[in-house]
UniProtKB/TrEMBL annotation:
Subcellular localization(s) per the UniProt record: Cell envelope
Keyword vocabulary terms for this entry: Coiled coil, Signal
Organism placement in taxonomy: Bacteria, Pseudomonadati, Acidobacteriota, Terriglobia, Bryobacterales
Organism of this sequence: Solibacter usitatus (strain Ellin6076)
UniProt key word Repeat: no
Signal sequence interval, chain numbering: 1-30
Protein name: Secretion protein HlyD family protein
């Protein structure tokens, strides 16, 4: 029994020694590159969105009228080519036409009232002048009668003196009253003129509102419909929709010059130098690749609240364009930069 235990212990010891004495595998080291051999390239990939260098958004017009939505009656198709000044959208102008008709009628009526009041003032002024001249003539006649005093009786002389004083008071009264009447007539005429001018402003404002309901392009380019809130959902505007003032309808952009705005991590900022070349790929068109170059970047990096990762905005300009490109398309910018050389 003791012999068997010794044999078993010897076998286990031999197996343990054999396991511990396994040979170490050989390690092959990479050869150092030869002096002057070309270094590899490091690829920097950025993501961003496409935008036009020259673009303009057209909004629902802000007009002077009662509040509430406005009805879209005409809209240019999406993707249409337009020239500067072309008609893009038209809104219902029924309310403005009614207001313009009423304002025109009131303006013409007030214009007639002004002319009538001006003629009436001239007639009244002529009548007051005639009354004043008659009073002055009566005064002169009474003064001539008074000059006959030495040959008149005492009673006739006193009557003539009273008549002279009365005529003089009448003349003075007419002069004062005529001045007040002239000012009163001028004030009444001025009130009518102000009412007429106010109505004219109202008419011009209504006509301007009617002109604003026809939206035209400020530049030549392509039309891109904007997403807006309509019928409890987001979508493109359609004819017959009720839209509120200030909502964007379409965007007019020049497709010949397009930019890619992307966020660059702070470590990759060293790859952005003047004249850096890149290739831009588009998620919507996988087979399309266009060359681009670095345009400019934000000088200050920023980070989200509570995040240690900082990034800044960089802009690349496409060297070529394609007819199917539209703003807000997602794009990937690939930059090939030489790998950092090892320290000598």
């Amino acid at each position: 029994m003791t012999t068997m235990l010794r044999q078993s212990a010897a076998i286990f010891a031999a197996l343990f020694l054999a396991a511990c004495s396994r040979p170490t595998p050989s390690v092959t080291h990479a050869a150092d590159p030869a002096p002057g051999a070309p270094r590899g390239k490091r690829e920097v990939r950025l993501t961003g969105t496409l935008e036009a260098l020259h673009s303009s958004k057209i909004l629902v017009p802000q007009i002077w009228s009662q509040g509430g939505p406005m009805t879209l009656t005409k809209l240019i198709p999406n993707g249409s080519r337009v020239k500067e000044g072309d008609l893009v959208a038209v809104f219902d102008s029924t309310q403005q036409v009614d207001q313009a008709r009423d304002a025109q009628a009131k303006f013409e009526d007030l214009g007639h009232q002004v002319e009538q009041k001006r003629a009436q003032n001239r007639a009244d002024a002529e009548k007051r002048i005639a009354d004043l001249r008659q009073a002055e003539a009566d005064l002169a006649k009474a003064q001539i009668e008074l000059q006959k005093g030495p040959v008149l009786s005492e009673i006739d002389r006193q009557k003539t003196e009273v008549k002279v004083h009365a005529s003089q008071a009448h003349v003075d009264s007419l002069k004062k009253s005529n001045a007040f009447h002239d000012k009163s007539d001028e004030a009444a005429l001025r009130i009518l003129e102000l009412q007429r001018d106010r109505q004219k402003v109202m008419l011009e404002r209504t006509k301007n509102n009617m002109a604003k309901l026809e939206l035209r392009t400020p530049l030549a380019g392509m039309v891109a419909h904007q997403n807006l809130y309509r019928n409890n959902s987001m979508g493109h505007a359609q004819e017959g929709d009720q839209l509120y003032r200030g909502q964007p309808i379409v965007s007019i952009f020049d497709p010949s010059e397009m930019l890619v705005r992307c966020a660059v991590g702070e470590p990759d900022g060293a790859a952005l130098t003047a004249g850096t070349k890149a290739v831009v790929y588009f998620d919507a068109y996988p087979d399309l690749a266009l060359p681009a170059h670095f345009e400019f970047a934000s000088p200050v990096a920023s980070s989200a609240f509570g995040s240690p990762i900082k990034s800044f905005t960089a802009v690349f300009k496409l060297d070529k364009s394609a007819p199917q490109l539209m703003p807000d398309l997602s794009a990937a910018v690939v930059i090939d930069t030489p790998a950092t050389e090892a320290a000598k």
